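Much of what follows relies on a compact textual record of a protein's fold. The record below shows the convention in full:
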Amino acid sequence: MAYKINDDCISCGACAEACPVDAISEGSEHYEINADLCIDCGSCASTCPVAAPQPE
């Protein structure tokens, strides 16, 4: 199950830096996770200051 970033994202980029497989990129409104690349490790969720990444 991949993670998804919700609308609470403040676009700080902490999740992208923490992702070991580079599955996170800056989207038009906030950061987004490529579900095909996500390995469900939770690094993004544990790094995010606003808990925007959540399991789908």
Notes: The longest helix spans residues 14-18.
